[in-house]
Amino acid sequence: MEYALNVYIISITLIKLLAGALFLIGYLKTRRFSALLISFAWFLAIPVATFGAIDIRVENAMISLAYAFTLLAVFRLIQEEQIILLPKSITIAMPLVLVVTGVGTSLIKSIPEEGYLISGVFEFIAGLIVIESLSTYYNRNAKGLGISLALCGIMTIFYPMFYQKPPNMLITPITAWSIIVPQFWFYSKIIYSEHFFKWPQSMETSKTLKIEGTHIIPPSEFEDVKDKIGLYPTLAFLRNFKPFPGWISYLLSTVERPKALYPTDLYKITEISTKYFREAQQKGTKGIAIIEGLEFLKLYNDFEAVAKMLSNVRDYVTLNNGTLIVVAEKSGWDEKEWATLRRILGEE
């Protein structure tokens, strides 16, 4: 029993040390503050969940500090990606509640457990926030991280019941490893992703991006425009081309799959675009939308419906000072339709 516990503690400690060091290097390379906060969280979590090997008062205080930094890291990452404006009352109050509760009860009580209980609840919430807010930019890695954080939160809530006597020293470390290792893996995939590393440069590029207004371009020019936009969080409805990493992209397809839109669901393109440009305006950023595959949409809708959708999207683009790029092949339309498209998009 004691040998198994020692092996568990040593292995988990090494994982946390490695994670903290790796994410600290990620911060030094990217200068993204969220990576530094994540690194601190892993270092602070080292004396946590030792099942009585360390005083529960120390564990209770440290888990609160570790999870407070985790929350701060999640909030900071959301702010860096400019996903949504977060009130300071939330970004400061929630981590502060964790710190005060954990450290305070550790000073007052001989066997505190409130830090673990409240930290577990907040960790679970952090996991849900990651899934909902960051999946657009980091896809499966964000979902995997969010799930591992949520599971870690659940396990943390129940830890005080077993901290002196684990139910089974074979199942316990396996359960802990099955949560900690994937969490380490998904954090690494996010922090060392191309989007995370190039984000600062892409944001600077977006400030001077000279693609403005509404444009209709042939498919042959798509790749050039794609390279100019780069990692900027662009909204894209695509049929024949792949999006740039970090784009908010939807596939126009008749096959049901995640992030796919059926060609007759033109109203969804309008709704998604409206929400995107409204949020971009609220955040003080410039929205950029790309619609490609109009010829495919015309196969399943009459021309008037496609034209109406483009007109609606263009109105929201103009209203919110954004950019709309429509990719269409002139040969796929008759002369009257092409002239109408150009007129709707302000190309005449």
Short description:
By secondary structure, the chain is of the alpha/beta class. The chain is 65% helix and 7% strand. It has helices at 2-30, 33-44, 56-80, 88-108, 114-158, 171-191, 194-207, 222-229, 266-282, 294-300, 303-319, 335-344; strands at 213-217, 235-238, 248-252, 260-261, 288-292, 323-327.
Overview of the structural elements:
The structure is a single chain. By secondary structure, this protein is an alpha/beta fold. It has two domains: 2-192; 200-344, P-loop containing nucleotide triphosphate hydrolases (Rossmann fold, 3-Layer(aba) Sandwich), CATH 3.40.50. Helices cover 65% and strands 7% of the residues. It contains twelve helices and six strands. A six-stranded parallel sheet has the order 1-6-5-2-3-4. Helix 1 (2-30) runs parallel beside helix 6. The longest helix has 45 residues, at 114-158. The model is unreliable at 204-208 (pLDDT under 50).
